[in-house]
Design a protein that fits this description.
The protein is α+β, with helices and mostly antiparallel strands. The protein has a single domain, classed as Ribosomal protein S6/Translation elongation factor EF1B (Alpha-Beta Plaits, 2-Layer Sandwich). It has a four-stranded antiparallel β-sheet.
Length: 102
């Protein structure tokens, strides 16, 4: 997740961030622009930002990843989440079958 300065052009910023990620060796499988949203608290004297969600494949070091983005002037905040695949086992209880009188 990346939060960008709201005065930046959404399409241009998305392209710039995608290019930056590809240069760092990531495979960008999905980009979702979430639009302009209010921040929970002011960051760098800004009360709102453009949100982007990126789905990446590759090895990520969160500290190094955030530092690369902070060099980009329009980036306000970054958040790195690791996707986990969870196996869910369904518990099926046998149902009682009532005898139907004829």
């Amino acid at each position: 997740m990346v939060v960008v300065d709201p005065v930046a052009d959404e399409g241009e910023t998305q392209q710039k961030l995608t290019t930056l990620l590809k240069k760092e060796g990531f495979v960008v499988s999905d980009v979702v622009p979430l639009g302009k949203k209010a921040l929970a608290y002011p960051i760098a004297k800004k009360n709102e930002g453009l949100y982007f969600s990126f789905r990446l494949e590759g090895k990520v070091d969160p500290k190094n990843f955030s530092a690369k983005f902070q060099q980009e002037a329009s980036v306000i905040r970054t958040l790195v989440l690791k996707e986990r695949k969870i196996k869910i086992k369904a518990k099926v209880k046998p149902q009682a079958v009532a005898a139907i009188p004829k």
